[in-house]
Design a protein that fits this description.
The structure is a single chain. This protein has one domain. By secondary structure, it is an alpha+beta fold. Strands 1, 2, 3, 4, 5, 6 and 7 form a seven-stranded antiparallel β-sheet that branches. It has three helices and seven strands.
């Protein structure tokens, strides 16, 4: 009876260790990077994949960047950006101090009430 309990505990420990071990570091996916500054949008290249994350309809839509102009339009102040899922329109606005001596402003997408409702993230190589 005692050996059966030890065996059950050993199996449980082994199972929990295997569950937390996950894939080897070389096989783990690269995390998505939230795009917050114009400089980050400028680094997007045609073929890069981005995710629109809409907080209003709890959706994530993946889109491929086709041109540098398309990427830069996403961070142009006052530009209307639509959620590909629910079709609601949000406005790109800037928060923080204007670019002075290395300070960066952050892009946010707000609804008509000024509440942040969406963000854009660049997907890692493994997320494509």
């Amino acid at each position: 009876m005692k050996s059966a309990k030890i065996m059950v505990v050993a199996v449980a420990l082994l199972a929990s260790t295997a569950a937390f071990a996950g894939a080897p570091a070389s096989k783990q996916p690269h995390p998505a990077t939230t795009l917050r500054t114009a400089e980050e949008f400028a680094q997007l290249k045609p073929g890069d994949k981005i995710a629109y994350v809409c907080k209003q309809c709890d959706s994530v839509q993946v889109q491929t960047i086709e041109s540098k102009e398309q990427a830069m339009a996403l961070c142009k102040e006052g530009e209307a950006v639509s959620c590909p899922s629910c079709q609601k329109k949000y406005k790109a606005t800037f928060r923080g101090p204007r670019a002075k001596a290395g300070k960066q402003t952050e892009v946010s997408y707000v609804n008509e009430k000024g509440e942040e409702c969406m963000f854009v993230a660049k997907l890692g190589a493994d997320d494509r």
